[in-house]
């Protein structure tokens, strides 16, 4: 710390030797600075304030029906992008600021200068914008602000309509594209179903589920067949016992000119045919097979009817059997059992045939199901996108009509473009102290520079350290009375020159402040 203080003290003493030169440089720099500040041209500022009213009554009414753009965000973005180069070039041409610019470089310089001089400020949530411009000519500044205000309003309205038209055109193109995709997906799905029509069911192409369902139906039909056969055997045994007791053949006596077994089978097959025709076409293998079986049963019925008529004519029934209630009831039960057995047997045969076909179809079913799932997925995706696009297009059209029939945002000019009578720049009252500080700094810098160029040693230690030579001795200076008087007068002149400079600056600042107040 002592060494540092010693170095600072040595530097100050060295600078003090060149105080006259430092004061001269300070006065010269101060004079030049004051002249430069006073010669600066005045700049006038023109400004205007615009309020953007976005609180339209239609906005809450059309919520959820039409697409409503964020007007506040659009206006804020417009205010930030208004100072783009194309907009400023348009502004320069409108106000004729480039009349004296003959070359491209000169025009670019004019555009850059105008861009730096324009200011757009906002208060944020209040949607209140202030447009300002500075120029040496107050009339030119006012014209620039007026043109900028016009561009600001026109750009906001034009951009909104242009965005709506672009959105509608884009949606129309996408709808046409997805309409073609949807038609193609429908064609591929239709062709696939026509190729595999025999594999289709009410629940689709789930072959594993159909196989399990048919297996369950086959098991149920076999169980019912066994139950019906057991019931028929029991009825037959009771008839045999009754025949042994009465000595008459009840079964032969009870036979009339009817074929209940064939009638039941025909009824079952016809009902099966109606069910198949509801699900398949006439060319389906199951439909053709059922019709063939119905034809065979009808032929067999005609033959048995003729045979029974002949037997009835040859051996008429016994009155005892016809009058026995037990025999009549057992005969009816036996006939019903015969009909049920025949019907269930036909059902079992049909389910066995279906089960065999389903087992063959299971070999190719996974590939077909995967292909159908892919086709359905493509179709559903295209259909969903198509419906969404159509809905959005209707919303966009309504939004465009809303913009054309009403003003969603209204621009109100709060303060028209005007120029302040007092120049806004340069601030000479603020620049004057700065020039004083610069002058003082220049004087100190010159004194320090001279002390380094022509150094002076104030003690023997510093001289010995610098020269690296032995020091024989030091002779102290004994100042005389004349020397002390000269130093005293020099110090007084230096203080008076410094105070005069400060007072002149203070007086100049007061005068400038007074003149600025008069102009304001």
TrEMBL record:
The keyword Mitochondrion does not apply. One of its GO terms (molecular function) is protein tyrosine kinase activity. The chain crosses the membrane at residues 21-40, 430-449, 494-515. Residues 168-245, 287-385 form a coiled coil. Residues 369-449 form the Tyrosine-protein kinase G-rich domain. Keywords: Coiled coil, Membrane, Transmembrane, Transmembrane helix. It comes from the Bacteria. It holds the Pfam family GNVR. Signal peptide: none annotated. InterPro entries: Bact_polysacc_biosynth/exp (IPR050445), GNVR (IPR032807), XrtA_polysacc_chain (IPR014345). GO terms for cellular component: plasma membrane. PANTHER family: FERRIC ENTEROBACTIN TRANSPORT PROTEIN FEPE (PTHR32309:SF13), TYROSINE-PROTEIN KINASE (PTHR32309). NCBIfam families: pepcterm_ChnLen. This is Polysaccharide chain length determinant protein, PEP-CTERM locus subfamily. It comes from Acidovorax soli. The lineage of its organism: Bacteria, Pseudomonadati, Pseudomonadota, Betaproteobacteria, Burkholderiales.
